[in-house]
Automatic annotation (TrEMBL):
Domain of life: Bacteria
Domain spans labelled LysM: 101-145, 151-195
Residue numbers spanned by region Disordered: 46-70
Pfam families reported in the protein's UniProt record: LysM (PF01476), Peptidase_M23 (PF01551)
Gene Ontology terms, MF aspect: metalloendopeptidase activity
Name of the protein in its database record: Peptidoglycan DD-metalloendopeptidase family protein
Amino acid composition bias (Polar residues), ranges on this chain: 46-63
Taxonomic path: Bacteria, Bacillati, Bacillota, Clostridia, Halanaerobiales
Species name: Halanaerobium polyolivorans
Length: 331
């Protein structure tokens, strides 16, 4: 009877060990391996206790089973360590925006030299940097270097992954994967995205046929640049409540509505790659898809959104990124 019980016990251990080995060969997750190994350990403990209580198992058999437990505990620790390593690898996935480098121009370098050194093209440099003069870059000037050919895009009010996907003909899943955006996660206004394969809509071969007019003839209260520990992407103009806001040039309204901290906003596309934005308005006088003329009154100034008083926040966006409006405006 005792011999039969020992044989049954060894058979159970053999089956469980076989199942554990099969699970490892099929790349079953660490949790399942841990579960299987734990069951084996518990089974050995149960079998040993039963034999010791009922049959007075010999010390040699106990020593063998103790060794089995040590081996299985060691395997359990290895499996758990592998699971932790896999989890850490998932956490370490970076978006392309985190892989952007900065290149400092050396004496004698040209844009074409820089692009070639990083296996990029001129459009990728233009699509990530403000370049006002292609043939006159200065030593010490810094350029963002994208990890792939494409552009660096800044999300505007009213935009989504779907609208950006349609605008640049890029798959939505590619945008999410490249920028580490989870399914169902919405974009934030002013969020930066790397758009793989996209080309700037306003290239170095294009020239603005006219300067933009001032949207309101008042003093500037806050310039473009760093402010209060963060970037201020536009120029603020003093604008008493209800002052007329004018289109800086002719174009088509691509957004007219509410957008969080911007309050009531209007965005006009003047040509591919060139847009202007007018924020914190009290009243919007034009609608999406509507065509407007240069100097046309499109809104009334206000204090909507994150604003400390009535004013106009004005942006100029080139290839999807806000640049200093003073480089494009003239009276």
């Amino acid at each position: 009877m005792r011999r039969r019980e020992r044989l049954i016990g060894f058979f159970i251990i053999f089956v469980l060990l076989t199942f554990s080995a099969y699970s490892n060969s099929m790349n079953v997750g660490g949790n399942l391996n841990a579960f299987s190994n734990q069951n084996i350990v518990e089974s050995i403990n149960t079998e040993e206790n039963s034999r010791e209580n009922n049959n007075g198992q010999s010390s040699s058999l106990s020593e063998n089973k103790s060794e089995d437990r040590e081996q299985l505990n060691a395997q359990l620790e290895i499996d758990n360590s592998q699971s932790r390593d896999k989890a850490n690898q998932v956490k370490e996935v970076k978006s392309l925006t985190e892989e952007i480098k900065v290149h400092t121009v050396k004496s004698g370098e040209t844009l074409w030299d820089i692009a070639r050194n990083y296996s990029l093209n001129i459009d990728s440099l233009i699509g990530a940097n403000k370049i006002s003069n292609m043939n006159n870059i200065q030593p010490g000037q810094e350029f963002k270097i994208l990890p792939v050919r494409g552009i660096l895009y800044q999300v505007s009010p009213g935009e989504s992954i779907n609208s950006i996907s349609e605008q640049f003909d890029i798959n939505t899943e590619t945008i999410r994967k490249d920028n580490n955006i989870a399914d169902g996660e919405d974009l934030r206004v002013d969020q930066k995205l790397v758009l793989r394969g996209a080309k700037p809509e306003l290239t170095y071969q294009d020239r603005l046929d006219e300067k933009l007019m001032f949207p309101i003839n008042t003093r500037i209260t806050s310039p473009y640049g760093p402010r209060w520990g963060r970037m201020h992407y536009g120029v603020d103009f003093a604008a008493p409540m209800g002052s007329p806001i004018r289109a800086a040039s002719s174009g088509r309204v691509v957004f007219s509505g509410w957008s969080g901290g911007y309050g009531k906003v209007i965005i006009i596309e003047h040509r591919k790659g060139l847009r202007t934005l007018y924020a914190h308005n009290s009243q919007l006088l034009v609608s999406e898809r509507q065509t407007v003329d240069r100097g046309q009154v499109i809104a009334r100034s206000g204090n909507t959104g994150n604003s400390t008083g009535p004013h106009l926040h004005f942006e100029v966006q080139i290839n999807g990124r806000a640049e200093n409006p003073m480089d494009y405006l003239h009276r």
